[in-house]
Amino acid sequence: MDHFGVHCDGKFSGLSRESPLEEFAQRYGSEVADLLQIDLDAVPSFSTFRRAHIGLDFAALSDAFVQWMRQYLTVDEDVYAIDGKRIRQPITDDDGKTRFVGLVSVFAQAQGITVDLAALTPTDNSELKVVQYLLEKLHLSGVAFSLDALHAQKKHCRSLLRGGNDYVVAVKENQGKLYRQIETIIRYRQPRQTASTPFECHHGRQEQRRVSVYSAQGIDPQRWQGTKTILCVERRRCTPDKCSIHRAYYLSSLATTARLWNNMVRGHWSIENQLHWPKDVVLHEDETYGRNPNALLNASLFRSITINLLRLNGFKSVTSALRELANQVERIFRLLQ
Question: Picking from 53-67, 90-104, 174-188, 311-325, which range would have the lowest pLDDT averaged per residue?
Fold first, then answer.
């Protein structure tokens, strides 16, 4: 608990590596010791943080995390996004091959928190297998899951349907036959519904989305079980110099309105904007040094815990939260209670 408390306290102050965490612990040593009710000599040092990152049992730590988050698994959540993120620091496995470890996360879009996760390790590095494992172990029914194009897999869709859930999967050229079928349907068939968003202005450009909903008739129901809907999401971007149009396709077992589809598809990217981006840019995950895969995975899990604690305490922006909480040791420790 001593290491956990100081580690999260340092993360809330925007610190990522062991040396800055040690400096933080030393600077606020007396406050940390009082809050944790430990001797001042027991405040963690650089080597303590390092040994803890390497020695902590990731499986046990992630199990405890999942048990903690189980109370937030709810059918009231509209959509859960599943996606993986690898840490940029390379690892060399026993065969001399370069691997990248990371986490596959189940992200509750409305709450903005990670509710389950599993590791991509040097020996088990297939994101497809890890996602399948998560789908089979989740105890949820009656919700929808969104997945990116890597996971437009018949096996994943069947697993979700067996659990009483629905799916929304992106489809790209990696599913060649399915992709071509969808292109043909969209080219020759009229959509059931369409909905457009107003133009939004960001960084000197205007952007508009248009969602068209099509019947999935023509898609083999034996291969893609439960499929009811095809979506075409058209993004029009205009700058002072030019306009561009990008189309993305989705397959789903749900049937709903075009406007709700627009919110759902856009919501899938919340896992990028609200989890992966803060871990990379704000908490500096891709700047992590070290060759020990267990240390990298534990540090990544601590970042997920930090983001969850902030969101559960009402902070939507991790950047704003760190500015507000930086070096407020007593206030930060209250968040951990």
Answer: 90-104
DSSP string, 71-128: GG--TTS-EEEEEEEE-SS-EE-TTS-EE--EEEEEEETTTTEEEEEEEE-SSS--HH
The three-point CA angle 274-72-9 to 5° equals: 60
pLDDT, tens digit, 9 for 90 and up, residues 147-194 = 988 888 898 999 899 988 999 999 998 888 999 999 999 999 999 988
pTM, full prediction: 0.83
d(CA 153, CA 146): 12
Torsion of CA 66, 70, 76, 80, to 10 degrees: 10
Tokens of 288: 């992590």
DSSP string, 180-226: HHHHHHHHHS--SEEEEPPPEEETTEEEEEEEEEEE-TTS-TTTSTT
Domain boundaries, the chain: 2-63+292-335, 170-256
**Higher pLDDT pick, 257 / 163:** 163
**188 Cβ contact list (under 8 Å, min separation 6):** none
- Homologous superfamily assigned to 170-256: CAC2371-like domains (2.20.130.10)
Report in angstroms the alpha-carbon separations of 122 from 90, 93, 98, 105. 10, 6, 9, 17
Give Cβ neighbours of residue 142 (< 8 Å, ≥ 6 apart).
75, 164, 165
CA gap 7, 152 in Å, rounded: 38
